[in-house]
Design goal:
Shape: elongated
Largest sheet: 4 strands, antiparallel
Pfam families: Filamin
CATH topology: Immunoglobulin-like
Strand order of the largest sheet: 5-4-8-9
Helix content: under 10%
Number of helices: 0
Number of domains: 1
CATH architecture: Sandwich
């Protein structure tokens, strides 16, 4: 366990500020995630709650060889999603960023 003391101009800030420390990358394998066939459409749902500008959200799929593939973000009936079609066999990695920073 660690304790973090926040100071402003040399004085300890006693309340009202909370920090959450996260690892730089998070690997998630949600329930129901299954392999897909080459060329099949993969849809990634994105919860954009709190994002003032949807255009600041970028979704990129990385092929098993590391090649990036931009995934356009669309909104249908208030649901944000991005799609791509895997064209290489193997494990793909999906990166979602907001204003250039990976979301957690």
């Amino acid at each position: 366990m660690h304790e973090l003391v926040v100071k402003y101009e040399g004085e300890e800030v006693l309340a009202g500020h909370y920090f959450r420390v996260l690892p730089p990358l998070v690997e998630v394998a949600p329930p129901g995630m299954a392999p897909c066939a080459l060329g099949s459409l993969v849809q990634v749902l994105v919860n954009a709650t709190g994002a003032p500008k949807r255009e600041d959200i970028l979704v990129t799929a990385y092929s098993p060889t590391g090649r990036p593939l931009d995934c356009p973000l669309t909104t249908i009936d208030g649901t944000n999603s991005a799609t791509f079609k895997p064209d290489e066999p193997g494990e793909w990695r999906i990166e979602i960023t907001y204003q250039g920073k990976q979301i957690q």
